Amino acid sequence: MQKVFETILIGLSTGSIYALMSLALVLVWRSTRVVNFAQAGQAMFSTYIGFEISSRSEVFWLGLLFAIVAGALLGAGVDYFFMRVLFKHANSGPAAVVAPVIATLGLLGLIRSFVGLTWGGEFKSIETPASTNGFTIGDSTIPFSPLNVLIIVTTALILIALAILFQRTNLGLALRASAYAPEIAQLAGIRTARTRTIGWAIAGGVGGVAGMLVTANNFLSPYSLDLLLVFGFIAAVIGGLESMVGAVIGAFVLGIGLTFILNYVGTSLVFIGGFTVLILVLIIKPDGIMSRGKARRA
Amino acid sequence: MRKKILLFIVLGWVLLIVGDRVDELRVYQGAQIAMYTIALASIVLLTGYSGQVSLGNGAMMAVGGYAAALTLTNLQTPIWFAFLMAVIAASLFGALLGAAAARLSGPYLAGTTLALAVGLPAIANQFTFLGGEPGILFDVGFPPERLGEDFTQYKWFFWIASSIALVALFITSNILSSRFGRTWQAVRGNALAAELAGVNSSRWKILAFTISSALAGLAGAVFAMNISLVAPGAYSLALSFALVTGAVLAGISSLPGVAFGALILVAIPEVADALAGRLGDADKLNNYLPGLIVSVLLILSVIYTPNGPGENLRKLRHKRKAH
Amino acid sequence: MPDNLADKKTVLSVNDLSVNFGGLKALSGVNLELKQGEVLGLIGPNGAGKTTVFNALCGIVTPAGGSLSLKGKEIKWPKPYQLAKLGIARTLQGVGLFPDLTVADNVMIGANRFAEAGLLRSSFGTNSKDEKRLRDRAQAALERVYVGGVSNRRADTLSYPDTKRVSIARALVAEPEILLLDEPAGGLGAQDIEWLNSLINNLKARTSIIIVEHHMDVVMSVCDRIYVLNFGQIIASGTPQEVRNNDAVIEAYLGTHSKEKSARKKA
Amino acid sequence: MSGLLVNNLSVSHGAISALRNVTFSVEPGQLAAVIGSNGAGKTTLLRTLSGLKDASSGNAEWEGRAMLGKKPDELVRRGISHVSEGKSVIPELTVKENLVLGGIWRANRSDTNAAIAEVVELFPRLGERMGQSADTLSGGERQMLAIGRALVSRPKLLLLDEPSLGLAPLVIEQIFETIDKLRHKLGLTVVLVEQNAMSALEIADTGVIINLGEVVASGKASDLINDPALRAAYLGY
Amino acid sequence: MIRKTARKRTWFVAALLASAGLFASTLPANAETGVSSSEIKLGITLPLTGAASPGYNKIGNAMNAYFKYVNENGGVYGRKITLIQKNDEYSPQLSIAKTNELILKDKVFALVGPLGTANFTAVHKSVGIAKRKVPSLFLNTGFSGFASKKNYPTSFTILPSYAMEAKIVAQFIKENLTGKKLGLVYQNDEFGIDALGAFKDAGVKFDVSIPYTSGTQSAATAQTWVSQLAAGGAQVVVFFGVTSATAPLLAVSAAAKYAPQWILGSVGSDPLTLRALGVPVAVLNGALTPAGNPSPNDTSDEYVKQFQEINAKYNNADFDDYVLQGMNIGLMTVQALRAAGRNLTRAGLIRAMESKGSSFASVAYSPLGYSKTSNVGHTGYYMAVMDAKGDRKPYGGSVVLYTTDSAKGPVVKSNFKRPAMPAKGLPTNS
After folding, report:
1. What domains can you pick out in chain A, each with its CATH number?
2. pLDDT tier at E11 (50, 70, 90 boundaries)?
3. Residue E2 C-alpha, separation from nearest chain C C-alpha, in angstroms
């Protein structure tokens, strides 16, 4: 019983990080209809910035702050200087459909090479903001540590902040309206291009947090966030790619599910488990668990 | 058609002579170019013609590579049979993947195949008979003795690889210029209109996946031969990305471009090496300059010549005519 | 029903077709009958459900109820790709050519059902005779719609009227018994419309046609019979002459006059 | 002061010409009905006027200032509001949020709140459903919400595209009555694009009949009702 | 249609001619590859980046530093040594590609110190090291398979084999840790399998045995190892894996307050690297490890002292086991090159290794086994214990050297005395 409890707790912590990544993907998807594979690269770059700041200042939170800012600026920059140019040029012919996908891949490679040239390929680790020593219950120590608590709490705070932003502010309304119905948003006087850039910035910031939190428990390298991207994507697909709430729920389902596989079946099955979930969702409920039966344009 | 066969025979003859005149490094790279040519043809068929994006062609290559290696080590068969098994196993895999893929639209398909490419090592590690991370050695044996003492292993690889590539290209170009290529283009251009013209688009998409995967599997087996090894790391995400890049650079919808794309893929590390040498031989440059060049080329070409240089030329000519 | 049609065979009949979109009734209880060699018009104001009838026939939307008979035999609602085999061809409102294929290739797609060479023969290049047959069929179809000269051009370089013709050629090349034309006159100028009229009149000999069209001149001059749809129901049917003088039709198109409205309110 | 002037406007969709040399004007405070059958180019006209689509030639001005080539958000700030075809509400948002959207370009939220209150006064039914998702509204209510959203921006020129589309006859009557009422009450200039010619012309001051992208008749609404061009535009005879 | 194919063909031919252009290249020179009157080119593949890189990525630079030192002091018979390092990220297919570059493009004379068992196995087969007769000296791997002179006629290892290491650890356990519950974590390839076989032969049974696949190591996997070990009640845990696996294992154990007696294999136990990877040093306190070399902090050792000086001047890296190892490979390489004589050939180098290799000076305490019939380097270990600072001291206070072979031979305590460090660290042998 205790093991089940432990597994759920660890799963929540893992799911939190997936949630941030899948949110970042969903935010961009809704506004731009692009699955941004470069999100892993953007988050990685932001995390390197966060790593620099936190290792110099020895304050994790300062690093996190800078990672968010760097992520947001990079996200906005990618939309403004990259996606806009892309959509202007690559809009016809056989490659028009695949161009955005390939372009974000190219961007991922570009960021990765840039990071590699700047920081090298060595593994970096971030000074953890909280102890990684597990809590002791009675006379046994569980693998759930204050760092895990911190990850869950930080994620929760960011989710709440995003919920307030999206539900309570004009900017949030503009973001939602532009995502759901760009033309109506335009007719309501929203500058949709600018709103989209802001959406990319928010996604970038959220991705930066995901990168910092996952790195606090692991190492940082130019490749270290690739798997997070894949799990974030799977979580987003579970949620249907359209819904932010769905993305978060999908992430927790995936996080807890995979932790169960990890703890009860074996390490090497974790990825296969995730992949199987992806295929099952796509076949059984391709619109994700949050869909209300209406197929969406993809 | 007779002309086409003649052309391929001449090409083979040219390759034979070239292979005799250059040093071993170039022969080794020539075998790589042949391998990439087949792999890029598989992407052109899948993405350029049938309009499905796959970021997991590396995984299809892996299926072929592993099938060939397992056949060779466990059954001690002749090499041609190993290559045949690679084609068969990969097409079965492709058919399965295609059946799932036919239900998916662009970004879902891209993401799913990406996940496959990322997760391939985990899958290979799961089964001990696949040899785990270190993989399985792949041994096609030494060249026949009658070819002489000086006939190196790499030249032998080059001979095998380029003849396979020529045959594969011949077949692929035939398929693409037949009604098959035409129908895939139709499904890509307007799926509804194609359906109304009697095309069962999901079956055609699966067929495209199957044939593309067969080609990729063949390339994977040639790859395994070239490096005498199948290992999960060999069919990495980086390989899948490189293939997409090569295909985009070559013009994703044009088969004749694939040789050019393959050449670029092999040349980039060379160029990067030379460049790194000039810029100061730091580890970082050596490690990341090729990636940087690949990415920049990919981005520039996807923005400015998304449909390949041929398409840009066509548009330019069209514009001139109009003026 | 005009006399000359009364004794013709019925090639297609739709019985009690209804289609729902979510909670919305897009079509309810629609009955259609297409006779051998006739041109049937399907008209009605915007949103009346004309294209939905076509879409249901073509398997693009799933009917909530109703049945379909082909030459007197009841069949399941077909999937889009099965139409060609059933001898039905449809053109699309938005033309729907494959932009980066040549005109000949575009039309050859429609001729796929006549192809004999399989994958193996195609792989080894021994399919040239088969290809030539398909190409000849395509060329003949193009010549029937008077655009034989553009067969080697890419579809996206054609003028708009020519794309319309090519899309009709692509439908004709399959030698359908039933042709569904979705707004063939849309976007055409007067000359092309005249040409369209004569084409449709020529096609009647071999093909039965249903046409959805807004352009009343076309409808009135080519149709043998007309069905009028409004709010998803058939409100009138008959010869062009009959339909033209039907008050319900006029009201459906122009709306209700206030005098009648107040009359209705009183009632 | 001049109202809306449209002069020699031509628009095309790629190779297809959608509007050719369309010319008409609307005096301030008047309602002009633009009528014609399906595919005549009415919707294209409105989309061009509200900045969603580029014109190929010609010009248009509102209150003496050019409208063409401006972005929709800029035109909204100049008091031009376009209710696009097909109950243009966002079903994923609540009724309240849809209304707030209308005033989102304003920095001042209290101004928007006041405008919303006025709209609710006009459409009490929306007031009852403020918190509901717009998805749950009936067709007529959605159309009211769409118009309400436009009104929250306090427009001077309202561009209405087929408010009757897909609605039952009784609801259509209501919608037209409402339009008539509110434009008098608010002193709006309205361009009403309609297929339902009779109902539109009844509440209009002037009318423009478009057929195949060209203006075939225009003038006082009451005259147009009996103009043979009207029947010809719809029925071809 | 005819025109279309014609254009296609033009493209095709153009692309082919372009590829043919790449092949225009010069023919190789006839003198011994990689040797000129002023230079000897050597090559090494090793993980400079990636999961396995920590620690190993310092070896190449350390070798280079030593070569620079030798070059500044006259080189080898007047020839300067150039070392080309290539990053293989510890993946076999990259090792193959990079070794191909080294041999075909850079045309190195010999490979020195390449890393990784699976890597070199693949390289040897694929590149055809034996057929090309490329000397491959001082392989940094303990796989006993490389001891086959028949299969690997031009290759020489430097480390004692993993089989030897395991036999010695097994002997140690039997002598000092009887009656305890035993756990084993090992890398599931030649590296760990070798050890597993040796333990079996020695009759040491493990209560908990956990294989892991190279590349899967992470904090998350380590958590499952620890819970399995703890559940099995293992009091002594033997670990045979790379540093990047040791680090999470120790870190997670520390976090879970699981503290068995650790016996860390020689490969993954460098304390400095472990610390850099975030392992709390305290957990290392008391951990046992088989060691061949003296502690890198032992400045009383003449080798360590000399190497530290060279490191300070030419490399300036934190001086740890890996730097020590790199320097030592450099030292041995120079001795081998000198032993091959002024007329340097590949065949001559291999002959020199076989005839004179066993007498080379090396920092490790155990004897070298090179001969006409053996290509195995060092043949023994002593057990060391780590302290709270991560420093390594001989178990029991003084070095007790065990020597053995990779086969069924006995484990014996040895009194071998290693040759002295050449004056100033500059070999003068011939």
Report:
1. 2-122+143-284 (1.10.3470)
2. low
3. 10
